[in-house]
Design goal:
Distance between the termini: 22 Å
Order of helices and strands: EEEHEE
Helix content: under 10%
Largest sheet: 3 strands, mixed
Strand order of the largest sheet: 1-5-4
Shape: globular
Number of strands: 5
Structural class: mainly beta
Length: 66
């Protein structure tokens, strides 16, 4: 996962990082807003409704993941 997300246009995440929540513990301002689930596995990308950070899934989902 990218640590300095403010400099990126999006953050790539892998299946190993699912389920995904924002903010992540790696973010500088990890307590900037309430922790919210980000459903990146549904469409391959999703945006946080609080901070508008865009997350994109890199690679494939693990087998049996819906």
């Amino acid at each position: 996962m990218q640590i300095e997300h403010a400099k990126q246009s999006y953050i790539e995440v892998t299946a190993a990082e699912l389920p995904l929540y924002c903010p992540t513990p790696n973010m500088t301002l990890w307590n900037a807003h309430p922790k919210v689930y980000i459903p990146v596995e549904k469409l391959g990308e999703a945006r946080c409704p609080y901070c508008s950070t865009l997350y994109k899934l890199k690679g494939e989902l693990p087998k049996g993941h819906h």
